[in-house]
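Table 4 source record.
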Amino acid sequence: MADFFASLGPDHVAMIEAQPVFFVATTAGDGRINLSPKGVHDTLKVLSPTRVAYLDLGGSGNETHAHLAADGRITLMACNFRQPALILRIYGRGRPVLPQDPDWADVAGHFNLLAGTRQIFDIAVESVQTSCGWGVPLMDYASDRQTLVKYHAQADPAAWAAKTAGRTQSIDGLPTRATDRYIAGETRP
């Protein structure tokens, strides 16, 4: 059975923080639905009962950015692949925050920035849904993959900027904004 909540409670936050992977879904207009797994450790943060954010590293495309700029709707999902069985969905409205944006420092202050950080998605929680998850298999977590962070850590900032500057559209032709700054990785207390 599904239960709905107006905001995230302490049990929801604990469940989210315990998961090594979460999923993001967005769409805009008649275009494709984008569904992406995210699994780099500590990139999803609960900022308040009605606000979450996640750190986005450069990858194959920028569909989430394009969809949020055009439509704003976003769904995040976390599944507990251990006991107890549980699925948690966050329905909300999101916006991309890029390093050149005025509120970057405020939002980025919640994260340890990683090499290749492209943007942070800031999401206003509209509702939270939990469901049983009895159909989700039990799986053991082995480890994080370090490939994406290593790839970005070895990248030439000028080459990276040139490559991403040309990525101004989603696969459906929606506009995106590129960061004008390469994040080599920063640490915060």
